[in-house]
């Protein structure tokens, strides 16, 4: 979906900044330290969930100073809506996961259906264990049962967010600040 420039600019001009660039960078640094403590001897395959995980991974991966392999998958269920639907596996995982530790990186744990499906898929493919790192955990009581993240950067209120990988109507993934859409 392509917006006219004034409409795309209005989104960010009217949005509320919930976390500044400095806060996001500090959160990613804390996550990196915790992941390094817990996983530096696990020789993991680190999967970025596209598209949302792109910015978090770009900042987090260089701070993980231990041996790992990088990969990506694309599972999507929001398209350009503000509520999620069926999961679309646009790019499934391609690596041999048998007996491996997997670390999933994503921008947001919202209702958790995306992560539930990704974790289940990794385990079906033979992964030994699956750990999850998300920049944002949205606080509400609509989570899929049993879905939690092992490493969380920030807990954020129950509003529709964008920035740092998260999009609103396909736009504004390309900021480090985390915003909430005006009125949502
Ligand atoms: O916890 P959930 O409620 O399942 O939502 C979280 C997922 O939703 C977003 O992806 P989206 O479906 O928007 O795909 P995209 O990143 O390709 O836009 C986000 O990047 C997470 O992967
Ligand atoms: O709040 C959100 N913003 C953007 N993408 C999302 N995917 C799940 N929740 C969100």
UniProtKB/TrEMBL annotation:
UniProt catalytic activity: GMP + diphosphate = guanine + 5-phospho-alpha-D-ribose 1-diphosphate; IMP + diphosphate = hypoxanthine + 5-phospho-alpha-D-ribose 1-diphosphate
Alphabetical keyword list: Glycosyltransferase, Transferase
Transferase listed as a keyword: yes
Entry's EC annotation: 2.4.2.8
GO BP terms, alphabetized: GMP salvage; guanine salvage; hypoxanthine metabolic process; IMP salvage
Taxonomic superkingdom: Bacteria
Coiled coil start-end: none
Single GO term (MF): hypoxanthine phosphoribosyltransferase activity
Keyword field contains Glycosyltransferase: yes
GO cellular component: cytosol
Xref: InterPro entries: HGPRT, PRTase-like, PRTase_dom
SUPFAM superfamilies, alphabetized: PRTase-like
Phosphoribosyltransferase domain boundaries: 17-168
Xref: Pfam families: Pribosyltran (PF00156)
Name this protein carries in UniProt: Hypoxanthine phosphoribosyltransferase
Organism per entry: Silvimonas terrae
